[in-house]
Amino acid sequence: MLHTFAAGTWDFHQQQLHYLVHARTHNFEYVPGQLEVIDRAAKRVRLAPMYGADTAIADTRELEYDVLILAFGSRADDFGTPGVAEHCHFIDSQDQADTFNVHLRAQVARSVFQNRSIDIAIVGGGATGVELAAELSRMVEFATGYGEVDIRRRLRVTLLESASRILGAFPDAVATSAAAQLGTLGVDVRTGVRVVAADAQGFLLDGGERIPATLKVWAAGVRASTTLDKSGLKFNRAGQVVVQPNLLAEGDTSIFALGDCASFVPEGSDRPLPPTAQVANQQALHLIRHVPAWLQNGKPVPPFRFRDLGALVALSDYNAFGTLGRFGFFTGRFIKGHFARLSHALLYRRYQLALHGTARAVLLWVAERINALVQPKIRMT
Ligand SMILES: Cc1cc2nc3c(=O)[nH]c(=O)nc-3n(C[C@H](O)[C@H](O)[C@H](O)COP(=O)(O)OP(=O)(O)OC[C@H]3O[C@@H](n4cnc5c(N)ncnc54)[C@H](O)[C@@H]3O)c2cc1C
Predict the structure, then answer these.
(1) Cβ(281) to ligand 1 under 6 A?
(2) Protein residue with least CA distance to atom 26, ligand 1
(3) Most informative mutation of 68, 170, 260 for ligand 1 (most atoms within 8 A of CB)
(4) Which of 102, 108, 163, 323 has the smallest C-beta neighbourhood within 10 Å, fewest atoms?
């Protein structure tokens, strides 16, 4: 839901999970810190020193492990494109989404006071870019409701994608419908264009065209979010840990990797599974199921098999498109409209249910509904 925090249409304070509290409630130990080094011979990991508000909070620490499960996720990849790191926003973490929102609100205020356009360009027509573009449209709609009737006319969102269509990981029908919906929202979807540089004024395309933008978002590419160069593990070009069929890191007997940071190629395929929550979730469940038995009596962890439950992309409250899983009666069927939107909403609630249990998940939902009645629909401060 990071794109909703970025657009300011959802309050992340209500949604965030506090690991410390979660750990206490669910009987695990949470150690804050950033994994820096893995010493595979000694079976130890080193955590980097921690700082907060210019204060050293914790020194370097070491932890021992019997089994290490790496799940450090991924971030967008700028492929070394000049100017991107300096001039673009990324929406890979809550902090980044928050920073983007601060700049977005400044642009909206400037537009109101100075009657200026809000030019936003997003690079990457994957789910993140598409969902963010739609959410920005929703944000100005709410702003219009608060009296800024002209603001929709002043918002210009351009979505830039190098492939011949957006949503490359989704079936054609989903991509076509999503592109059409974005068109009705006024988003300028440009496919088959390659960004070669970014600067303060916008993006430069291969061929010399310039895309002016005061706010620039980079939501393309995937790169593992941590480098563990000296660990001796095997990585692919995107920095993901190459894993065996049972998710053990290649060349190791006690380090597993899952989710976005792992490169898992299913049997019979030549491409790794995509970095999605569905894959991460299923891999986590696989290890939860099998690692305890392996530790207790040496029963090997069996190969992981991915079950494609389908894919959904939601264009804010406007519409949602997707496909159902490739098995059973509805094999791969295309869905849209209310059913797809409801399915998307339920997916999120399902995660909340898994994290918090029924009572708390229901209470969270009720609190959200009440807040929606008494709070502004967009983030104001
Ligand atoms: C804006 C956005 C929208 C998305 N929408 C969808 C969607 O609609 N559907 C979908 O299936 N997927 C979506 N995804 C992808 C989905 O979020 C990921 O596939 C999923 O979160 C991967 O889970 P993970 O556990 O592998 O990694 P993450 O959820 O990224 O978790 C990794 C964690 O590891 C921490 N970490 C990183 N490095 C270190 C380190 N060195 N030491 C300690 N901790 C570390 C990170 O801070 C993070 O908390 C979206 C992603 C983004 C950014």
Answers:
(1) no
(2) 259
(3) 260
(4) 102
Length of the chain equals: 381
pLDDT tens figures, 292-346: 999 999 999 999 999 988 889 999 989 999 988 766 666 778 899 999 999 999 9
Cα–chain center distance at 176: 22
Q: Which of 8-17, 305-314, 345-354 has the lowest mean pLDDT?
A: 8-17
Average pLDDT taken over every residue of the chain:
92
Both tokens assigned to 86: 């300096």
Q: Is the CB of 71 under 6 A from ligand 1?
A: yes
For ligand 1, the distance from its centroid to the CA atom of residue 283, given in whole angstroms, is 14
**277 CB within 6 A, ligand 1:** yes
CA nearest ligand 1 atom 37, residue: 72
Tell me the HSE value of 298 on the side-chain side, using a 13 A CA sphere: 0
Q: Give the DSSP H or E segment for 108.
A: helix 94-114
Residue whose tokens read 């304070």: 13
Hey, which residues does 119 pair with through a beta bridge? 156
Question: Whose CA is closest to atom 27 on ligand 1?
Answer: 73
CA distance 282 to 6: 27
Q: What whole-number percentage of the chain has pLDDT above 70?
A: 98
Contact by Cβ (8 Å): 154, 139: no
Is 126's C-beta closer than 6 angstroms to any atom of ligand 1? no
∠359-322-176 over CA atoms, to 5°? 150
* 91-48-65 Cα angle (round to 5): 105
Instruction: Work out which ligand 1 atom sits closest to the CA atom of 344.
Output: 8
Nearest to 118 by CA among 149, 84, 157, 78: 157
